[in-house]
Amino acid sequence: MSFKLICESLFSKINPISLKNVTSGASNFYTSAIAAGKINRMKDRTALLRTVVKKEDGTKGATSVDLDSVIQNQQFQRFPDIGLPDRTFGDVAFKNLPVCHIRVSKNNTIVSVTDNKGKVLAINTCGKEGYKNCRKGTNIAGQATAITLSKEALQKGIHTVKVVVRGLGPGRASSVKGLQMGGLNIVSITDATRVSDNPPRARKARRV
After folding, report:
1. Using N-to-C axis directions, what is the helix angle for 172-182 and 139-155, rounded to 10°?
2. Tens of pLDDT along 50-75?
């Protein structure tokens, strides 16, 4: 018997219903494989989103300090008095202390130390610290920038500073904490954020 006749006899014995079951099973396997791939991609995306640093609006970290407990535990002066400029901190008058300026924005944090006349002695930013793109606008970047600058200031003999904060952003509270973690002694914190008494006119309402 020839090979052609053997093949024809075998295919004639196969039930067409069983062939349909095989094809339907293959299609079900194909669709299940596609669904499994989509699920795996969703799991990878969620894992990636968990590693992204959560951004703050600049006010969450500032409200986490309980000022009432600080006032009760230690001698704390909330507002300056008339004799503050001549008061000494580490054998240096308050008016002659170096000033640490913190410029905060939504996308970056710039920290600099100047003398009492405004001459810049040290400066550091989130970009110089190694953070790129959107990671510059995080509270962790602001804290790391302040820690590095405080160490540089200590090497130059600066131990006690006044802090002036300007602007709103994620690094607003964390940069002040970073200065303290770096070893600087902070005697005052001033908020110099600009607030307009006559802001520009708002845009017209959108017509829907």
Report:
1. 30
2. 555 555 444 444 444 454 554 455 55
Quick one: how many helices (H) and strands (E) in the chain? 6, 5
pLDDT at 85 over 90: no
- Summarised one tens digit per residue, pLDDT across range 179-189 is 999 999 999 89
Separation between Cα atoms, residue 127 and residue 11, nearest integer Å: 72
Length of the chain: 208
Give residue 147's region: left, alpha or beta (phi > 0; psi -120 to 50).
alpha
CA distances, 120 to each of 24, 30, 116, 169 (Å):
76, 67, 10, 23
Rounded alpha-carbon distances, angstroms, from residue 101 to 108, 121, 151, 167, 191: 14, 11, 15, 11, 10
- Largest pairwise CA distance in the chain: 119
pLDDT of res. 8: 59
The whole model's pTM is what? 0.61
User: Exposure of 133 by Cβ count < 10 A (0-12 exposed, 13-18 middle, 19+ buried)?
Assistant: exposed
Pairing of strands 109-114, 185-191: unpaired
